[in-house]
Amino acid sequence: MIKICTDSCIDINKNQIEENNITVFPLSIILNDKEYLDGIDISPKAIFEYVEKTGQLPKTAARSIEDFKAFFQDLLKNGDEVIYLGISSKLSSAYSYACQAKTEIGSDKLHILDSKSLSTGIGLLVLYACQLVKRGLSSAEICKKVQLQAEYNQTSFVVDKLDYLYKGGRCSAMARFGANLLKIKPRLELVDGKIENTGKYMGKFNSVIYKYIDDMLREHSNIKKDLCFITHTCSDKKFVEEVVEYVKSKDIFDEVVSSVAGGTITCHCGENTLGILYLLED
């Protein structure tokens, strides 16, 4: 049997994880020097409350090589082949730690892939890998197809305020002040495994999101139409539902679902971040 596993940056829904028998390795979130496990004993709500109370930004961290080894060895003990697909190697040391763990374990049944993505961008690739498992492909065929698909993955978000990015050292005080003053909402996009600022919108967050979605859907003519995610950190559930219905009205995708981003994305982007994510035909 081939086992698909990933990290807690996956940001897909619990039922999708359970239905596809996906095993999730929790990344670390650090608040006031105390370590929590993403999705286990820390929630986005707790992160928002911590930042509001202290003015300090939580930190994210990869788990140790020993933690990765224990995780993989537990999955390998039944003789299964294991394919791990986690956060982009250019965004976290988690990938290199996973590779080192594989080297130390020395098993040819363990395969480590670079998603070149984050959040539901990883999730889409993981779900694709699960489809390939169900089709009966070998681990070598799955790895080859998934690594190719990683080059064709539309992952982007619009951020309401730059406060979290500023606190995390990812933008200057001047950029934060100007963006908040002029109501500029940056578009952050995964390009070759790195986060790039590929656009900006001016106005209220709930209004510019529709322009952003139109732009992203217009940009690609080779969209895979089976599944689209609206992934977010928004507290306004009605607004998210309206966005989902708006994307459905385009009559492009077979399925459009919403997903709440987990702790890792929350730590870096803050509240009111929303993205449309889907795969592309290679």
Give the topology, please.
Elements: E1 2-7, H1 14-19, E2 23-25, E3 28-31, E4 34-37, H2 44-54, E5 59-61, H3 65-76, E6 81-86, H4 94-105, E7 110-114, H5 120-134, H6 139-149, E8 153-159, H7 163-167, H8 173-182, E9 184-191, E10 194-202, H9 205-219, E11 223-232, H10 237-249, E12 256-260, H11 263-269, E13 273-280
Parallel strand pairs: 1-2, 1-6, 6-7, 11-12
Antiparallel strand pairs: 3-4, 3-5, 8-9, 8-13, 9-10, 11-13
Helix pairs in contact: 3-4, 5-6, 9-10
Outline the structure in words.
- The chain is of the alpha/beta class and 282 residues long.
- The chain has helices at residues 14-19, 44-54, 65-76, 94-105, 120-134, 139-149, 163-167, 173-182, 205-219, 237-249, 263-269, and strands spanning 2-7, 23-25, 28-31, 34-37, 59-61, 81-86, 110-114, 153-159, 184-191, 194-202, 223-232, 256-260, 273-280.
- Strands 10-9-8-13-11-12 form a six-stranded mixed β-sheet, with helices on both faces. A four-stranded parallel β-sheet has the order 2-1-6-7, sandwiched between helices. A three-stranded antiparallel β-sheet has the order 4-3-5, with helices on one face.
- Strand 3 and strand 4 (34-37) form a beta hairpin.
- The longest helix has 15 residues, at 120-134.
- It starts with a strand and ends with a strand.
